[in-house]
Amino acid sequence: MKLFALIALSALTIGSASYAKADIISISGSDTYTTTGSPVTGFDISFDPLANIGGTSTGIFSSFTGCYQCVTLTSSLSYSEGTAFTPTELFSIAQNGNTATVTLTSINSVTNDLSVNGNATFVVNGTTYYGTLDFTTQGGDQGVNNVTFSATSTTSPVPEPASLALFGTGLLGAVGAIRRKYNV
Questions:
Q1: In degrees rounded to 5, what are phi and psi of residue 183?
Q2: Measured CA distances, 86 to 83, 92, 115, 159 (Å)
Q3: What are the tens digits of pLDDT across the range 56-76?
Q4: 3-state helix, strand, coil in the chain (%, to 5)
Q5: CA separation (Å) from 53 to 24, 25, 128, 172?
Q6: I need a labelling partner for 119 at 20 to 30 A (CA). Which of 12, 60, 135, 178 fits?
Q7: Global pTM?
Q8: Distances (CA, A) of 4 to 10, 156, 178
Q9: CA trace torsion 62, 64, 67, 71 (10° rounding)
């Protein structure tokens, strides 16, 4: 019974240390895109280098509200199925002392309305997150300017070493207290 209690406490504590959540941000600018193949096997996006944030930002992006030209986008993004994708910084944001960079590290799928799903690294206000990114068009067809993109991500924070050390010593203390209680 003692061992089971220790295992259950450890699993509960470790399981609560990380979590995933959805984060949304809308980015607008004078952007165009084209797709290749049917179904889509690739795409080319030309970005206006400076873009705006509109709509509602949630999750890790919640500190970024509507702004004019606070988003710096990569100049273009290209992908062809079957070729290696080079990790690309997709966009960065600087607003009111808050900063964020989103790097697309790999592409998992592409759909006809140009919804790109891939893995990404997010650095928001100094904290690094890893997760998936859905980069989707709204309000524009291929070759049309002023396409709006939204980035929806699922992220998990990466704990810093000091937090891990503090967590570990707390866990050892809890195990010691429980062990002492059962030994008495």
A1: -85, -15
A2: 9, 17, 18, 26
A3: 888 889 899 888 999 999 988
A4: 20, 50, 30
A5: 11, 7, 21, 45
A6: 12
A7: 0.70
A8: 10, 28, 12
A9: -120
